[in-house]
Design brief:
Blueprint (H helix, E strand, L loop, with lengths): L1 H16 L1 H30 L10 E6 L8 E2 L8 H9 L5 E13 L8 E7 L3 H5 L5 E2 L16 E3 L1 H8 L9 E4 L2 E8 L15 E4 L3 H4 L11 E2 L2 E6 L5 H18 L10 H5 L3 E5 L6 H38 L1 H9 L4 H37 L15 H27 L3 H6 L9 H36 L10 E7 L7 H16 L4 E6 L11 E6 L8 E8 L3 H5 L3 E4 L13 E5 H6 L10 E4 L8 E9 L14 E5 L10 E8 L3 H15 L4 E6 H7 L2 H35 L1 H9 L4 H30 L15 H27 L3 H6 L2
Parallel strand pairs: 2-10, 4-9, 6-8, 16-21, 18-20
Antiparallel strand pairs: 1-11, 1-12, 3-4, 3-11, 5-8, 6-9, 7-8, 13-22, 13-23, 14-22, 15-16, 15-19, 17-20, 18-21, 19-20
Length: about 850
């Protein structure tokens, strides 16, 4: 330890005597290591970190092996099952599991009246907390007796964060009443701060039993509807059981489960599919996560990008270390002459590199915390910030330590090894050009710069690809005009309307909103475009075989929807007062629908049939209008067939939240105030909520904004490091060749010739680096293919623009030392040593 401590003390003194070099090195390392650590922190939080529950490796998810033939309403983006299937599994608990549970996410309103106050909610089975091993910090959690049909609202378990935020950390909070969707419910317990739910990125506030759903669903029960797919099922494996054995057992039990739960209203053409469903067990120790699905691949790509930036920084530091080695030739020579072993010398020089790496890693950890929080803002929407635990754990610290060690080796080993090969006699006689003026030494420095240029080009190509892709999405025509649209959500849950009054009441509400001064048009819509939601079904021409049909998307809209969205009409009419529940079913279709179904240029008057659904029989529709094509689920997809049905003919009315689109040029604050007052005048029991439609479009591009912004930042940083490296090499070249330049100028060479000679050397380095970079960019571009829109990874314009931009800036940086060489005084140059 004594030699190591001496090396550390000496290394600290050496670095302190060279503040310029040390500052540049630390900043380069802090940026490189900090960026890598920040992205790894997000990956750790989203993908690697296990659930904060007892023995998370034992948790398994139960899901369908194949969803072909799954019909009905899917209420979640996660793999889900129906309540009937859950009850079968609960009652016949497979031997593979010591306990099973079910849960579903929902959004609760905790405001007694007036404006909505959102809370993240969970419907959970009675054994949810017990199977997970989550013990309350106050009160109790649910048991199996709390979750039985007809339970009403037996109580609520709240999260630690909700207890702090809404209940003021009151030790007597248990027994207090809170409001959940206008229903008073008693708080029976508070979960520990470490437990935030099973959806990584989403923290729950309030949990209620599954049996409470009919009470909170305004009387519409998911419990008795076998075609509502809404519950995630999980279980804890018995000791000694594997996922493979559990899947085999579930496969054996599946025929009985699905035969017992076949819904009476399941479409007959899919009954065979339902009876052949198989359940499987999948690892769930890391929970489920929409963020993971959306951002895992982009984050791995960004981590690779940040890794390239760190390699460029290492190449830059290696060049700096080589330059420093020339200034320490005599010191190294004296050490060797006095008997220092080459191994001992390498150890001392590597200790300096390790000191730099450790200090850079420490600064990088501090920077990573800010960077990771900055990146979370790219994953956030208005009013919805992802909940991620970004505290460094052993994986993050181990990753940072590993990066620091590898980094120190990358930029420190080659200079140390070369310095150790120095002959003492030549070192004692060397001048400032001795050690690094050798051909081998300078070839390494040029190779490092060419490598920096190559890697920088790869990152610049990536930055331009993602930026152009985002531009393509932002300028993509969705088929309607999103600007000037206000989305108004109106909750009719407590209006207490009889079924025959529901449609007329909604039409009256729309008419009152149309009468607001400054409102151009108003319409309600079942599925908001570009929100990721949607429904589709098979359609075919009436009188033809259904095998000749296609799959079409559907939406339910009121009259003036196309006027409000500014979707052009090409034939026929809009929905109007003729289209009521007792009237023949009508539809308006887009051009893609008419084209794919072979209906010709004007399909008005023709009829098509829609396949039966669990809620509707197979039925015919008469086409009364033809409109333009629009995007449906999201802006990334092309124009798809859409059939629009009249909301005035939809008597089911199972969703009491009405989505109303209002087009107006009035200021947002004034418009929302008038809408609130109008709704209140109609019925004070109705609550409202607002969202600007343009925000919906922006929210759909969060991933692209993240990739474009960070890849652009890394690309510019890499280019800056490469340019600094090239400038340093060219400056060193001028110093190394000063005598030669003096001789050339004495023999008649002009300043222009000297300038050209130096720029040619820079050009060679650039050409080699750009050539290698283009090959690397083409090879690695395929990894980004799925994240691009309207571009190919090998886009010629992008490749050419990146190469020209990097070449222009690099040559400009090379020009400065080249011009300095051209202006040297020949006599001064001849005497230079």
């Amino acid at each position: 330890m004594s030699p190591l401590l001496n090396d550390i003390r000496y290394g600290v003194r050496t670095l302190a005597r060279n503040p310029g070099f040390t500052t540049v090195a630390l900043l380069s390392l802090a940026l490189g290591i900090g960026a890598n650590t920040a992205i790894f922190q997000l990956l750790d939080a989203v993908r690697l970190r296990t659930l904060p529950v007892s023995r998370p490796q034992e948790i398994a998810e139960l899901r369908l092996r194949d969803t072909t033939g799954q019909r009905g309403s899917q209420q979640s983006g996660f793999p889900v099952l129906t309540n009937a299937i859950w009850e079968q599994i609960r009652d016949q608990r497979p031997a593979a599991f010591s306990g099973v549970f079910a849960w579903a996410e929902d959004d609760f309103n905790t405001a007694p009246t007036g404006e909505v106050r959102h809370a993240s909610g969970l419907f959970v089975s009675g054994d949810f907390f017990h199977v997970l091993g989550v013990e309350p910090v106050l009160g109790r959690v649910f048991s199996a007796t709390d979750d039985r049909h007809g339970c009403g609202l037996p109580g609520a378990v709240v999260s630690y964060a909700f207890w702090q935020r809404e209940l003021g950390r009151d030790p007597a909070a248990v027994g207090r009443k809170i409001t959940v969707d206008y229903n008073p419910v008693e708080v029976i317990g508070v979960t520990p701060a470490s437990f935030t739910g099973l959806d990584v990125g989403q923290s729950f506030d309030i949990a209620v039993p599954i049996c409470s759903q009919p009470t909170l669903g305004a009387g519409y029960s998911f419990l008795d509807d076998g075609t509502i797919w809404w519950l995630s099922l999980m279980g804890r494996l018995e000791p000694g059981w594997t996922l493979e054995r559990a899947t085999a057992e579930l496969g054996s039990a599946s025929p009985g489960i699905f035969e017992a739960t076949l819904p009476k209203n399941y479409p007959r053409e899919n009954v065979k599919d339902y009876l052949h469903f198989k359940l499987t067990a999948n690892p769930a120790g890391t929970g489920v996560s929409w963020l993971r699905e959306q951002y895992e691949n982009p984050l791995w790509m960004l981590l690779a990008t940040a890794g390239l930036v760190l390699l460029i920084a290492c190449a830059n530091l290696a060049n700096l270390m080589l330059a420093r080695a020339s200034a320490r030739e005599r010191e190294i020579g004296v050490r060797l002459a006095l008997g220092a072993s080459r191994r001992r010398l390498v150890q001392q020089l590597m200790t300096e590199s390790l000191l730099l790496a450790v200090a850079g890693a420490g600064l990088g950890l501090v920077l990573a915390r800010a960077l990771s929080r900055f990146m979370v803002t790219f994953l956030s929407t208005e009013g919805n910030t992802p909940f991620l635990d970004l505290r460094p754990d052993w994986r993050v610290l181990g990753f940072t330590a590993g990066v620091a060690i590898v980094t120190s080796v990358l930029f420190g080993l080659a200079p140390a090894a070369r310095a150790a090969r120095l002959a003492p006699s030549s070192a004692m006689k060397s001048s400032a050009r001795g050690l690094t003026a050798g051909r081998e030494r300078f070839s390494l420095r040029r190779a490092l710069v060419a490598t920096q240029v190559a890697l920088s080009l790869v990152l610049l190509v990536g930055a331009l690809l993602f930026s152009r892709s985002l531009h393509n999405l932002l300028t993509s025509n969705p088929g309607f005009e999103p600007n000037g649209l206000l989305i108004t959500y109106v909750d009719l849950t407590h209006v207490n309307l009889p079924s025959e009054r529901r449609v007329p009441y909604k039409l009256e509400l729309l008419d009152r909103l149309r009468a607001i001064p400054g409102v151009d048009s108003v319409a309600d819509v079942g599925i908001l475009p570009l929100t990721g939601s949607g429904t589709n079904n098979a359609v075919w021409n009436e009188g033809s075989d259904r095998s000749q049909g296609m799959t079409s998307n559907f939406n339910w809209v009121s009259r003036d929807y196309f006027k409000t969205m500014r979707i052009p009409f090409f034939a026929g009419r809009d929905f109007d007062n003729r289209d009521m529940p007792a009237s023949p079913a009508v539809a308006i279709v887009n051009r893609a629908f008419a084209r794919k179904l072979g209906l010709g240029a004007n399909p008005v008057g023709k009829r098509f049939r829609r396949e039966a659904t669990p809620s509707d029989p197979e039925m015919p529709f008469e086409i009364v209008g033809l409109v333009g094509d629009t995007k449906y689920r999201d802006i990334h997809r092309g124009n798809e067939p859409i059939a629009y049905l009249a909301t005035s003919q939809d008597t089911r009315f199972t969703n009491w939240w009405v989505q109303i689109l209002i087009r107006s040029n009035e200021p947002l604050a004034a418009l929302t105030a008038q809408v609130k007052q109008t709704v209140k005048d109609i019925n004070p029991a109705m609550s409202t909520e607002f969202e600007v439609f343009q925000s919906t479009v922006r929210n759909g591009l969060l991933r692209e904004r993240l990739m474009a912004t960070l890849s652009g930042f890394f690309g510019l940083l890499a280019a800056l490091l490469a340019i600094v490296g090239l400038y340093g090499v060219m400056s060193y070249t001028v110093a190394r060749r000063t005598n030669e330049i003096g001789i050339r100028m004495t023999l008649g060479a002009g300043g222009g010739e000297i300038l050209g000679m130096m720029l040619r050397e820079a050009g060679i380095l650039l050409t080699v680096g750009l050539g290698a970079g283009l090959l690397l960019a083409l090879a690695g571009g395929t990894a980004a293919r799925t994240l691009l829109f309207g571009l190919q990874p090998y886009d010629p314009l992008t490749l050419a623009a990146a190469a020209l931009l990097l070449a222009a800036v690099a040559l400009a940086a090379s020009y400065l030392p080249a011009r300095r060489a051209a202006r040297l005084d020949p006599m001064t140059a001849l005497r230079y040593e």
